[in-house]
Amino acid sequence: MTPAPAKKPAERPYHHGDLRRAVLTAALDVIAADGPSRLSLRDLARRAGVSHAAPAHHFKDRTGLLTAIAAEGFGLLAAELAEAEDLKDAGVHYVRFAREHPAHFQVMFTPELLRADDLELTTARALAGDALRGAVASVRPDELGIDPRLAGVAAWSLAHGFATLLLGRNLDDPIGNQDPEDVFRTLAAMLFRRDA
Amino acid sequence: MTPAPAKKPAERPYHHGDLRRAVLTAALDVIAADGPSRLSLRDLARRAGVSHAAPAHHFKDRTGLLTAIAAEGFGLLAAELAEAEDLKDAGVHYVRFAREHPAHFQVMFTPELLRADDLELTTARALAGDALRGAVASVRPDELGIDPRLAGVAAWSLAHGFATLLLGRNLDDPIGNQDPEDVFRTLAAMLFRRDA
DNA sequence: CTCCCAACTTGTCAACGACTAGATTCCGCG
DNA sequence: CGCGGAATCTAGTCGTTGACAAGTTGGGAG
Questions:
Q1: Contact B87, B136 (CB under 8 A)
Q2: Separation between the CA of B106 and the C1’ of C22 (whole angstroms)
Q3: InterPro entries attached here (chains A, B) (predicted)?
């Protein structure tokens, strides 16, 4: 039997074709523009040209939609971190991810919007966690001189804080129009410089 | 006809007394427990024992309430930072503030929930910004060896990221049951250790 | 071809934010 | 003391939303 990948061959008959993806994409637009609070399932349905209850069939409810977005985000983050060459570079990729997927990033770290026990979410998050720990392990222990677990927390905190403040437009003044990734490289160098 | 028999010592008079403070406090409870998204003006009114439209008189609308909370938060943060002795200590106080006022902290850095041009908010934020810059200025330039503005960004990013991840319960595994402030002191030491 | 089931629709309900008009109480000022 | 304006709170309403229930459509497996 053909697996029937079910791409979208039709315009918009009774069946939308790929409503799930359409709703996800529209949701990401709304969140990036106005935040998760202004997200409305009915609005997404309108944008997709379907009835007001159609999205619920794919995501159960609002929380389900946001959980799906977070899970997708952790998958994308894991892929991004996998490309990093060392811990400092992982931070750069972390910041890049936040800037390229601001909606995902925002939802991923707003736990009260998510179904914490969702399987897809927890596995995707674990994947991203593995990627981070892998980056930490790539540093020779004598290079940082402290518990590698704390080094991971330090790197994560610095990257997460920088990314969060950046997305919240809190760093516009201090860093002006410099490339954020370059600025972050400087910060990371402060954290991981070897003692002479 | 005398009104209904008084059930409790303080049967609700027509005027609440300090509804503004009561609504603020209740809102902080709700936000700390369930996040700003589950905040409902009508629910707060019920908790305070007033009609569903009463809170709007003090805060105009939902955004007004959240803006008032953020402004109060920046004031509290400025006071907390003013007690710091140096930049590293300012970070410790920043983390302490986030733990002691999680609801304020969350709202302060969720700009899409706030009225950005609100006067009280902008002045309070400026106050906190001054406090942070003051802490940065307390460091002798040769001690960090880089642009002091970037040092401020680094310190803020580290403290903000650590606090954010902490409140989101993302660091439960890595730091176990250690005192978060102690952990942060270690991280800050990484950032600001002098070369050689 | 038939039947099953996922995708989608229509209808409904309670809750909410926002707005309006009106009632009650407080307080400054004469 | 009392008067009048203003602050505070109530009551009613409207449009929107999330969630749910029940019915409809159509594609595809057998």
A1: yes
A2: 38
A3: Homeodomain-like_sf, HTH-type_TetR-like_transc_reg, HTH_TetR, MT1864/Rv1816-like_C, Tet_transcr_reg_TetR-rel_C_sf
